[in-house]
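Sequence in, structure out.
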Amino acid sequence: KKASGRPRKSSKCQDRLLKRIQLRDRSATSAELAQEWQQAGVSASACTVRRRLLEDGLVSRRAAKKPLLSKKNIRDRLIFCRKYSEWTAEDWGKVIFSDEAPFRLFGASGKRLVRRRKGDRYHQSCVMPTVKHPDTIHVWGCFSSKGVGSLTILPKNTAMNKEWYQNTLQQQLLPTIQQQFGEEQCIFQHDGAPCHKAKVITEWLGNQNVEIL
């Protein structure tokens, strides 16, 4: 029986071509894809392009943010993975991990979606207030398989430097190690931030008999 309705503008082969074009450049817009598809002999609108991609499960979404890795970063991570690839859960249970992060005190640091009608773009309920220089606090914390340590909140608009970091380790890390591990040996992990790798910090940790991962 002959199918009813308007015939498709593209064949299955042409649909597969569109998919390959999209996967070659994930950020290409529907209009750009329609132009490139047209060069292959398919006259279709951006709307048709979106429908074809939706049929194949390719949905437009905001790109996820991820730290840019240099060749050195990739090499260092590979070395790290190979070095500790045979560690067991028991081995990792002896590690106390740490990290720090900044938090804005006014507004959100990312984007926010709202539902609005035409003409409501600047309605009070549809906008996200911003300021040029929002106040920020830095928070440091640590944890292990045995539990979490106390959070350290630096004074407002104060960035972590080697002086603040040493004070944080003295006031928070050492008591947490004593509470969670007692006399048992543990290993401390922190990232490669400049204040973490400062000579004075490395020497201080050594004097406290804190082994670094």
